[in-house]
Give the backbone structure.
Amino acid sequence: MWLENNLEATVLKFCGRRSHHLLTLLGVAILGLVTGGSALAQSAGKTTEDLPAGAMQAKATTACAECHEARIILQQRLSKAAWTKEVDKMIKWGAVVDASDRDALIDYLSTNFSPEKPPYQPPRTAARIAKTSR
Amino acid sequence: MIVRSFRFIDLETPVEYLNTWLTPVPHFFVRNHMHEPSEVSPDTWKLTVGGEVDTPLSLTLGDLSRLASHSVVNTLECAGNGRSLHRPQVPGIQWGKGAVSTASFSGPRLRDVLQQAGVKPNGKHVMFRGLDEVPGKVPAFIRSIPIEKAIDADTLIATHMNGAPLTKHHGFPARSLVPGWIGAASCKWLGEIKIMESEFVGNFMSPGYRFPNQPGKPGEAVKPEDTHVVTALNVKSVISGPLDGSKLRTGKISIHGAAWAGEADVAKVEISTDGGGSWNPARLGHDQARYAWRLWQYEWKARPGDYSILSRATDTQGRVQPNEPVWNPSGYLYNAFDQVRIHVA
């Protein structure tokens, strides 16, 4: 448990500082091994997710994944007006988006993550609690 | 746990785990606004106490451990729990029903530390700064609570959870514990306490964590001046079993769950097995504490059919869980009746 907790902390610390998907994937793979391959088993292959294909995929990934993973976007179902507010807030908070890309980014997000889309299905970590755990 | 996000980390407790009075720490929901601090050493960590005080303090973990420890069993719920159920949908972590858990928190009373520092008469608000690592230009996680709540005997600087030191995900080495209030009041990785003359002004006080003074139409914008800071939790129940979509056999079925009411007590929980046509009282569990949820159970003799099972709680302030939630632009305090649909054959 100590090893698991510390590795998890290390992985999360690492992921917290870097936005590199491979590093995150590696970290989660280590977690899976340490927890007997059971943790995150249900989410195997979904531990990191990419934004959907499209002309703005790369720029959106660069702008957003510097601070948080794509899953935070994938779970939203918002109108264009709401996406506009979110994009402008994130630019204010440091997301690097060229002024000439702003409208295309809003279009990309509001097309792919509109209220009409089916709900996002989040992965689960596997239960890892022992009877003696507090 | 349901993964709402790994980076930064937001984990939801599956609703079927909301079935123990104390939630085991590995099943306790995790809500981070940004990245956890990379390095927090118990040997070098310090908590500063300043602002409108006679004697500014710099406290080590050892200093805190030498103060009298107090324990509070508290149901902690994220203000945004149930956000995904609001219509129209609103931005934010799309919590289902499980951004809520209960633990026994312990540590020194905040008021003992404030007394040591000597709060000046003009000190009316207590600000907490977390040591979260802030990406980009995101505002730091800083919030404040009124002095009256800060000096309540149950408001803590918590260092332990269910008898063990806080884990990193839950704010090691110390967090504020503001019982009965939204989770955001209980600031993790506490680094600074500052006594202020007025409420802290910052993103996590406004526009964050504010609620409309009057319910508006779903989807309508709300002016900032028509809102107030979210403080105490409202009355709410959830069904932890049977699960939505279950297919069950006829006979005795145990419908069970948890109910809580922030600073009030749960007076009763009622169950409807006919979609709200009639209501039956559930039996409340024996375990109780002022700020903790009550587990409840209702034994139902089920005949074949399709059913909509509802739960609704009433608290000692007379508040009743409503049929419809109060929509608000940030999706806070969702507390409509809980509902599961099941098939009995």
